[in-house]
Design goal:
With about 350 residues, the protein is α/β, with parallel strands linked by helices. The protein folds into two domains: about 30-265, Alpha-Beta Complex (2-enoyl-CoA Hydratase, Chain A, domain 1); about 300-343, no CATH class. It is about 45% helix and about 15% strand. The strands form three sheets. A six-stranded mixed β-sheet has the order 1-2-3-5-7-10, sandwiched between helices. Helix 1 runs parallel beside helix 3 (about 105-120), helix 4 (about 140-145) packs across helix 6 and helix 6 (about 170-180) crosses helix 7. The longest helix has 21 residues, at about 245-265. The chain is elongated.
């Protein structure tokens, strides 16, 4: 995508504080700055509540690689632009326009997603999530991927997968049980309810909660404390404490990528994500009713088992009484259709 390659840059030993260097060029969806031993990656899509797209993920992966290789960087801070949202996960509009239509493309998307997560988790330096607003879905997976988190007191954290027709298997199903315990993890994943900042602190989802006006001051102080440690010892400490995260991640992320890609061809993501974009409640009851009545709740119009006797078109959905090509009545055909749509 034309992103710059990671390169080493020398900087002076100034303490962590407000960023003084101009941001690196070449990015559209993120802002990447380095100063005083601290690299800062800011999701720069406030109009979309800092939801990420395929481009965003590729830019994040590139910035994480640069920060990992730059010996002048000792800490990385991940945050979102504005004060409304840290990150609200993947951009559902991209899901609807691209991946519901072509589920195989989601496999490629998840490959870039996993690469970005691997680079952040294996960056070799402490990472801090600066939570400045709503943390939802995949946004909480970025929070979980960081070593430490500081939240403004107005922050709420939630998972949303089962509400929108997906599964939070990009870090949440793997790391929430490790971070907050099995029961609380199941509560977040199944119910998708908001967890206020103070409750998140009590549960262990974040390390510190401060008034919004004090967020940068607290993050900067934490960065100074982290920089006042030996870098090699910090790197290996991170490698050691990553063990359980790495074990859960590598045992499941490949399966998640393939299952989610196949799942995008089904009814649940179609209904859930269209409802999200259209700002209406999803028809959960309708999906359950189809299954209870013996129908195919996995697809919008049933399995592709009908054939048109008039024009020969095969692979028509079971619920179609007429051919979608010529309009003639169609009969049920239990045999599988040919890949070209004809018998």
């Amino acid at each position: 995508m034309g992103m710059p390659e990671g390169r080493v840059r020398e900087t002076g030993p100034a303490p962590a504080g407000p960023v003084g260097n101009p941001p690196r060029p070449g990015y559209e969806d993120i802002r990447y700055e380095k100063s005083g031993g601290v690299a800062r990656v800011t999701l720069q899509r406030p109009d979309r509540l800092n939801a990420y797209t395929l481009r965003t993920l590729a830019e994040m992966a590139d910035a994480f690689r640069d920060a990992a290789f730059d010996d002048s960087v000792g800490v990385l801070v991940l945050t979102g632009a504005g004060d409304r949202a840290f990150c609200t996960g993947g951009d559902v509009r991209e899901y609807v326009t691209d991946y519901v239509r072509r589920p195989r493309e989601y496999w490629k998307y998840m490959t870039v997603f996993a690469e970005a997560h691997d680079r952040l988790r294996n960056i070799g330096k402490p990472t801090v999530a600066r939570l400045n607003g709503v943390v939802a879905g995949g946004g909480n997976e970025w929070n979980l991927a960081c070593d430490l988190a500081v939240a403004a007191e107005h922050v709420v954290i939630r998972q949303v997968g089962t509400r929108v027709g997906s599964v939070a298997a990009g870090g949440a199903t793997q790391w929430l049980p490790i971070t907050i315990g099995d029961r609380r993890a199941r509560e977040m994943l199944f119910l998708c309810e908001e967890i206020p900042a103070r409750k998140a602190l009590e549960w262990g989802l974040v390390n510190r909660v401060v008034p919004g006006a004090d967020l940068d001051r607290e993050v900067d102080a934490l960065c100074r404390d982290l920089l006042a440690k030996f870098p090699e010892c910090a790197r290996y400490t991170k490698q050691q404490v990553n063990f359980w995260k790495d074990l859960a991640w590598h045992a499941t992320i490949g399966h998640a990528r393939d299952w989610l890609s196949l799942h995008f061809a089904g009814l649940e993501p179609l209904e859930g994500m269209r409802a999200f974009v259209e700002k209406r409640p999803p028809d959960y009851a309708g999906v359950r009713r189809k299954a209870a009545e013996g129908g195919a709740s996995e697809t919008p119009w049933g399995p592709p088992v009908r054939t048109c006797a008039a024009c020969g078109a095969g692979g028509l959905p079971e619920a179609f009484p007429h051919c979608g090509l010529c309009g003639a009545p169609v009969a049920h055909d239990p045999s599988p259709a040919r890949g070209d749509g004809r018998r």
